[in-house]
Structure formats: structure tokens, C-alpha cells
Amino acid sequence: MDMEKTVCNCMGVTCGQIKEAVDSGAGTLAEVQEATGASTVCGACMEEVEALIAHFKAERDTP
Question: Is 12:43 a contact under the CB 8 Å cutoff?
Fold first, then answer.
């Protein structure tokens, strides 16, 4: 996965920034929105942000 890929064009948030937020304890869309600003303007990226949160949470929680 390209951590430099921009997921939220409105706020310029990358995959890596979403991963950092999840690794720091954000586990919901609202928490990631608060930490990064992703998906807080137009909402077009909301599904992708939610999918990334689920992916990074699973990755974080897997020993």
C-alpha cells in the first residue's frame, strides 16, 4: 500500500496519516476525522477512509 497516496483531497490526508492516527489509538471514523481532518469537508472519501481504518485496525490488532 502506498502510504503517500492522498485519500482525502480536500484536506490533503494520506494513507500514512490515517495509519498513524489508527496506530495512535483512533478506532472510529469520528476519531480519525478529529485527528486528521479526513472526510470532514465533502465526504467523498468517507468509504475509503472507513475501509482504511478497518484495515489498519486489523493490522494493529494482529500479533
Answer: no
How much is the pTM? 0.93
Backbone angles phi, psi at 49, to 5 degrees: -60, -45
Residue 61 is predicted with a pLDDT of 82
CB 49 within 8 A of CB 56: no
> Do residues 19 and 1 lie in contact, with contact meaning Cβ atoms separated by under 8 Å?
no
CB contact burial 27-51 (16+ within 10 A = b; e otherwise): eeeeebbebbebbbeeeebeebbee
Q: How many CB atoms lie within 10 A of CB 58?
A: 10
- How many angstroms separate the CA atoms of 40 and 23, rounded? 20
pLDDT at 9: 98
Give the position of cell 471514523: 29
